């Protein structure tokens, strides 16, 4: 398996004499054959600025840098795939942070690109190739024209056409999971927030956060347009907003109004679940699905990343338990990172957290972050690193009634055949 690297113009090469390496946190490591799958459709190869590619010289067995002005290369995977290793590199400028993406180790073998990853969900619904740009543009124009005073549709049109957000695109294509952002404020200061970063962070937020409070009528218009089929999902809590439960009053009003007019589809919230009283109100209004974002079930790790304001991980657990007890299908948006999530203590804590909260689904989501910056703020490992592949196998063994996936599903999913090995 040959090392993959790029020149300064972004041209990608495979090295004929160097074997590829990956990273598990700080540790540069070999890539095993059973960790590799063909590069999935919808993936993107990217050059990692401020890095130097590292490989094994096949002739000597020594670890070496590629000589010259070259960068390491990583793959950005579509939903449905969980990375097992980071690309093998060292920083050429340690003062610079990589853009906020989830970089995966990529190699060249058997005349094709392969990545260190595992299929964890059906990738069809979140494959960018299934979003026709011409059809999308037509539907954006149609709905914006139909609701000219709806600021949410105007906001989402930029998310769909400018940022190519698939959830926003679904809102206009009126299919699957659609977006309805509601909040410009947040009760957390996430280190890797993709919609708002302080000037001193060194990161550039890849999205612009919404800057207005929507009216209930604007929200209900989008919800009623989207909830037209039994399998449709409309979701509060998007990458372009803060914490949706900070706007619990308008969410509760909107859910009640919509449910007076239709019982079709499912209402979801993507939330940090720290505002337990607000979450209870939203659940009682008629919520169907709830996905809670977390990076750890350990307080010190959680607090270092989320920087929660006036709530704790215990509040998150209480919110999940309340929703589960009320019949809401609950899941976690588990932000995973090779060399951290697969620590022994992290695995043990998460298994107990899942058991206490009654989760139905663990959504394994590749953390978009500069690795060095992230590793610099979180606690050091206290136990053995088991590897992402073994971590997933442990979850499967210890949590047999919990689904491992990658995105939200309707209730039908939990009672049907979920085999995804045939979709590649």
UniProtKB/TrEMBL annotation:
Annotated Pfam families: Radical_SAM
Q: Which UniProt keywords apply?
A: 4Fe-4S, Iron, Iron-sulfur, Metal-binding, S-adenosyl-L-methionine
Give TM segment ranges. Answer: none
| Keyword S-adenosyl-L-methionine applies | yes
- Which cofactor is recorded for it? [4Fe-4S] cluster
Domain named Radical SAM core is located at 181-351
What protein am I looking at? Radical SAM protein
Q: Native species of this protein?
A: Paenibacillus germinis
């Amino acid at each position: 398996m040959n090392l993959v690297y790029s020149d300064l113009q972004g041209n990608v090469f495979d090295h004929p004499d160097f074997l590829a390496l990956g990273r598990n946190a700080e540790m540069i490591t070999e890539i095993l054959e059973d960790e590799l799958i063909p590069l999935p459709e919808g993936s993107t190869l990217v050059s990692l600025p401020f890095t130097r590619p590292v490989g094994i010289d096949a002739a000597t067995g020594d670890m070496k840098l590629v000589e010259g002005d070259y960068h390491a290369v990583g793959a950005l995977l579509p939903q449905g795939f969980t990375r097992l290793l980071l690309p093998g590199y060292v920083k050429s400028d340690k003062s610079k942070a990589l853009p906020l993406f989830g970089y995966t180790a990529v190699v060249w073998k058997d005349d094709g690109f392969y990545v260190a990853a595992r299929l964890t969900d059906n990738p069809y619904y979140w494959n960018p190739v299934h979003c026709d740009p011409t059809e999308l543009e037509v539907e954006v124009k149609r709905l914006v024209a139909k609701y000219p005073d709806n600021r949410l549709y105007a906001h989402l049109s930029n998310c769909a056409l400018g940022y190519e957000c698939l959830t926003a695109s679904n809102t206009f294509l009126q299919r699957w999971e659609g977006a309805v952002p509601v909040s410009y404020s947040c009760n957390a200061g996430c280190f890797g927030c993709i919609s708002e970063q302080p000037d001193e962070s060194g990161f550039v937020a890849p999205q612009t956060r919404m800057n207005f409070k929507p009216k209930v009528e604007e929200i209900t218009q989008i919800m009623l347009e989207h909830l037209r089929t039994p399998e449709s999902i409309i979701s509060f809590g998007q990458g372009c907003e803060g914490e949706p439960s900070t706007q619990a009053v308008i969410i509760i009003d909107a859910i009640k109004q919509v449910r007076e007019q239709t019982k079709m589809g499912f209402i979801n919230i993507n939330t940090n679940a720290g505002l337990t009283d607000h979450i209870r109100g939203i659940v009682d209004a008629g919520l169907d699905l709830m996905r809670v974002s977390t990076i750890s079930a350990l307080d010190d790790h959680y607090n270092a990343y989320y920087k929660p304001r006036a709530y704790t991980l215990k509040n998150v657990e209480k919110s999940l338990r309340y929703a589960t007890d009320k019949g809401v299908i609950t899941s976690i948006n588990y932000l995973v990172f090779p060399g951290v999530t697969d620590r022994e203590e992290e695995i043990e804590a998460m298994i107990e957290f899942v058991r206490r909260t009654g989760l139905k689904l663990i959504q394994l989501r590749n953390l978009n972050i500069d690795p060095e910056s992230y590793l610099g703020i979180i606690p050091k490992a206290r136990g053995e690193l088991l590897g992402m592949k073994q971590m997933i196998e442990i979850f499967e063994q210890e949590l047999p009634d919990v689904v491992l996936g990658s995105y939200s599903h309707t209730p039908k999913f939990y009672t049907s055949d979920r085999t995804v090995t045939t979709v590649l």
